[in-house]
Amino acid sequence: MIPVFDLRDYDADPAAFAAAFGKAFHDFGFVRVRGHGISKDIITQAEDNARQFFRKRPATKDRHQMHGNEGLIGYSRNHETARGQDVPDMKEQWNIRARLPSGHPLAGQEQKILTVPRQSSFKPSMMSLYSAFEDLTARVVKPLAVYMGEDEAFFDDKLQDSLSMMRLLHYPKAGSAANHLDLNFLTWLRADEPGLFVTARDGHEYAVVAESDDELILNGGMMLGLMTNNDLKPSWHRVEAHSPRQTIVFFVHPNPDVILTPLKKFNQVADGVRPDYFPPAGADGRVAVSVRDFVTWQIQQIHKTKDAPKP
């Protein structure tokens, strides 16, 4: 059973909440979160708009592709390949990055492709949910910071220029996402339909689904694992859709220039085994890499797998 937490309980006893919250990430890598504060109307409007868009003809949806940048921004289908795999996932998705700085090469394109003809509420509904996820993230990192041995405000200056991404997902019947670890810091998931399978620390696989409307699923990614020397390591998970499945995911990234390195509380690698998702260490034996460079390195590992000669 994936642990469930109500974020409204944090203020009553921050230390106790943080200890339990961190332990859940340590033991499971996934938690279910209630009391998140995102209104049902905001979620419903975004879900309805996503559903309406995914029902359109392929040629219509393809107008919102950013050729050459599939998987980074805009619409794409059957494009993404998990690290360690050489077959793309069977799914269609729309990636939304709402905070691209003015100098970013894709700045300006996001707002353009978010304008969907004859669906005027698409863009505002997505911007509302994106902002709500940002506000929620600012709350949930407080107990994590406390567990990590820092002040609860530790992440306040590490997220304001984030390039976090919201992803609308549609899996057809028999659609799938291969077993994988998330490379980002945290991942929010809105999904009340079956199809998500998580591998627990003991090796057993469990089906995970939100059990109420006021519930989101949250998991840690590689960046969180790196900052805690794998104490809060990411969990393997996959999607197997026996019927059509729609979800909304929010991938949290710290600011691009934030340096990912184990915090002082975590001076030894958990279990004494250096995970393969850690990039190469420096001359002093420590890993210290910017968020920007970490993402680039992980993408390179994916392409190495795809391009490797087959036996």
Layout of secondary structure:
Layout: E1 4-6, H1 14-27, E2 30-34, H2 40-54, H3 58-61, E3 74-77, E4 92-96, H4 109-113, H5 122-147, E5 165-171, E6 176-180, E7 186-190, E8 196-199, E9 205-208, E10 216-220, H6 222-227, E11 237-240, E12 245-252, E13 259-260, E14 289-290, H7 291-307
Parallel strand pairs: 1-2
Antiparallel strand pairs: 2-10, 3-4, 4-5, 5-12, 6-11, 7-10, 7-12, 8-9, 8-11, 13-14
Helix pairs in contact: 1-5, 2-5
List its traits:
311 residues; alpha+beta; Jelly Rolls; 8-stranded mixed sheet; 4-stranded antiparallel sheet; disordered C terminus
Describe this structure in words.
There is one protein chain. With 311 residues, the protein is an alpha+beta fold. It has one domain (4-307): B-lactam Antibiotic, Isopenicillin N Synthase, Chain (Jelly Rolls, Sandwich), CATH 2.60.120. It is built from 7 helices and 14 strands. The strands form 3 sheets. An 8-stranded mixed beta sheet has the order 1-2-10-7-12-5-4-3. β8 and β9 (205-208) form a beta hairpin. The protein is globular and about 55 Å long. The protein starts with a strand and ends with a helix.
